[in-house]
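This section describes the prediction task in plain terms. A model, or a person checking by hand, is given the sequence of a single protein chain and must write out its three-dimensional structure as a string of tokens. No templates, partner chains or ligands are provided. The sample shown here is typical of the held-out split.
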Amino acid sequence: MTFFCILTLWFAMRIAVRGDMSSLIGAGIGFGGAILSKYSGGFVLGIVGLAYLLSPQRPKTLKPFAPWIMWVVRGVIPIVVGFGVFLLLDPLVWKYFAKFQSDIKDWVTDPLNRRHATGNGRAVRRSFQVPSGIGLPIFSGGDLAPCWKCWA
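The expected answer:
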């Protein structure tokens, strides 16, 4: 997962500087590899989105709206490519979709809740949770990395 996250971040830097199509596709491939390795690798998509907001390809004026529509459509490319890579390389998702849905619920969404019910209906607190006073600065640092472009 680390390799694909770093690859995606490298393409995100290229998106912030160039904003070309190959960078968007490369970021999508890296994102797909990251979520293929571990679902929590999906955080890199937020950084790609931030880099795309800083892209030189962004329209300069609010009107006309046509350039904005094309810009938004181009911005969806990393998402589509990433999920395409994921679905192409992990055929178990579409072969056993009910099991996949159950796994996403059990291993991704339920652990994100502060409290979730156990098998007997009793709510328990997770023991591996990062304290909220520490977690926000740690995780925000990675999202703010492409902001160097604002000062350049």
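For orientation: Residues 8 and 30 are 5 Å apart (CA to CA).
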